[in-house]
């Protein structure tokens, strides 16, 4: 029992659904366990949980209150649950087995490893969930992704990506995200192409493929790919951010229409509003694009973001969280950029430097952050990073 939530009951329901060949039901109950525990994790920080799992995982990530492996597990379960809830694609027993394989280590993270969790070691690390995927290639890839290390594991991951991985879009997406983050966009595209051949309509695979195209210097192809996404999900936070980023890259390359930057700003602002001002990454990108277009609203939005960061950091400090020691790369560079756009140049430079040093393995992410910051600095008549 977790604060009134009967976890054992849902674990029993998952096993019954797996044995009865009801993959959607099994995935639904896995998603419910994720929803409850992710909300409890945010509430334990003295913060208000979001209405959606995505918002809660994003909060935990930005504060580095969740390990990267646990984050991958959470998003994999979230996307599988969305597939089941919104009938986005046919789900197989293979998908349900993978959801069960992910849920065990996710619950282990929450119950035992999370610094504000119950700190209760489970008697069984699989939580009694039985899945044939617990051995073999799929389990090996998941084990690699669960390693909490700064080492680049791209070579080992690529060596394991066979057809069994390609038929699991959630796992293929996890591998691709790791590859993109470490600066291996070309290899990520290979993994994604193989998976898309099996599941062509998967929302996350298409988002990541578009992101890879953008980082490889093909923003127009990225935009065309994003246009194919389901209308129902073409306006969620992730898709809005990726589409806006592709439009921005198209403009930067000098090949897109003259309206590309204005369109990107419109999408960043929409995403910022859709997130109810929770997604600070979308907010800071909107402020940057305002600056680039001499929009006088830029500094006011940036100052609003700086205020949000300050209030949140103070609230966390009061609850005993060492924000400076724990926060994630994107949380650091997003606040850095907000400070820069708000006119706090030196504090922005200091925080950028700290982020680049702490997360030096994330070369692809750092290159993107540096390029954007330097464009804003140029607009302001200041020296580059």
Write the layout of secondary structure elements.
Elements: H1 7-19, H2 23-43, H3 53-62, H4 68-85, H5 93-113, H6 137-145, H7 154-160, H8 163-166, H9 169-181, H10 185-198, H11 203-215, H12 219-227, H13 237-252, H14 260-274, H15 280-292, H16 298-318, H17 323-326, H18 329-341, H19 345-358, H20 363-379
Helix pairs in contact: 1-2, 2-3, 2-4, 2-5, 3-4, 4-5, 4-9, 6-9, 9-10, 9-11, 10-11, 11-12, 11-13, 12-13, 13-14, 14-15, 15-16, 15-18, 16-18, 18-19, 18-20
SS summary, helix count: 20
By oligomeric state, this entry counts as single chain
The assigned structural class equals: mainly alpha
Radius of gyration: 21 Å
Number of strands: 0
Describe the largest sheet.
none
Can you tell me the overall shape?
globular
- The fraction of residues in strands falls at under 5%
Average per-residue pLDDT, rounded, comes to 87
* Intertermini distance: 51 Å
* Share in helix: 55-70%
- Give helix and strand order, one letter per element, not per position: HHHHHHHHHHHHHHHHHHHH
Uncertain stretches = none
Summarize the structure.
The chain is an all-alpha fold. It has helices at residues 7-19, 23-43, 53-62, 68-85, 93-113, 137-145, 154-160, 163-166, 169-181, 185-198, 203-215, 219-227, 237-252, 260-274, 280-292, 298-318, 323-326, 329-341, 345-358, 363-379.
Description:
- The chain is mainly α.
- It has a domain at 279-385.
- Helix content is 69%, strand content 0%.
- The chain has 20 helices and no strands.
- It has helices at 7-19, 23-43, 53-62, 68-85, 93-113, 137-145, 154-160, 163-166, 169-181, 185-198, 203-215, 219-227, 237-252, 260-274, 280-292, 298-318, 323-326, 329-341, 345-358, 363-379.
- Helix 15 (280-292) packs antiparallel against helix 16 and helix 18 (329-341) packs parallel to helix 20.
- The chain is globular.
- 49% of the residues are buried.
């Amino acid at each position: 029992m977790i604060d009134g939530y009967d976890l054992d009951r849902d674990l029993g329901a998952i096993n019954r659904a797996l044995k009865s060949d009801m993959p959607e039901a099994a995935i639904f109950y896995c998603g419910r366990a994720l929803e409850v525990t992710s909300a409890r994790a945010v509430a334990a920080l003295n913060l208000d949980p979001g209405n959606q799992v995505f918002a809660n995982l994003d909060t935990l990530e930005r504060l580095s209150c969740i390990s990267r492996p646990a984050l991958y597990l959470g998003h994999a379960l979230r996307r599988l649950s969305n597939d089941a809830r919104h009938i986005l694609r046919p789900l197989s027993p293979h998908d349900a087995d993978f959801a069960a394989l992910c849920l065990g280590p996710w619950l282990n993270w929450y119950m035992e490893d999370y610094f504000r969790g119950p700190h209760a070691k489970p008697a069984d690390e699989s939580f009694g969930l039985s899945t044939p995927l617990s051995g073999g290639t799929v389990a090996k890839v998941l084990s690699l992704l669960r390693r909490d290390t700064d080492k680049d594991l791209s070579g080992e991951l690529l060596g394991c990506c066979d057809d069994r991985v390609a038929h699991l879009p959630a796992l293929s997406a996890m591998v691709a995200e790791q590859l993109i983050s470490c600066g291996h966009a070309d290899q990520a595209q290979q993994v994604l192409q193989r998976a898309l051949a099996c599941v062509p309509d998967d929302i996350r695979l298409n988002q990541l493929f578009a992101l890879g195209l953008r980082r490889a210097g093909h923003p127009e192809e990225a935009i065309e790919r994003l246009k194919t996404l389901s209308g129902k999900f073409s306006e969620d936070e992730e898709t809005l951010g990726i589409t806006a980023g592709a439009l921005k890259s198209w403009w930067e390359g000098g090949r897109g229409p003259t309206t590309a930057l204005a369109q990107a700003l419109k999408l960043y602002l929409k995403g910022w509003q859709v997130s109810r001002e929770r997604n600070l990454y979308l907010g800071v990108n909107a402020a940057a694009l305002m600056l680039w277009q001499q929009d006088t609203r830029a500094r006011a939005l940036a100052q609003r973001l700086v205020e949000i960061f300050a209030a949140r950091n103070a609230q966390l400090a009061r609850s005993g969280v060492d924000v400076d020691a724990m926060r994630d790369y994107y949380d650091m560079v997003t606040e850095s950029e907000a400070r820069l756009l708000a006119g706090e140049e030196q504090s922005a430079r200091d925080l950028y430097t700290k982020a680049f040093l702490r997360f030096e393995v994330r070369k692809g992410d750092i290159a993107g952050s540096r390029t954007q910051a330097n464009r804003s600095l140029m607009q302001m008549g200041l020296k580059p990073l």
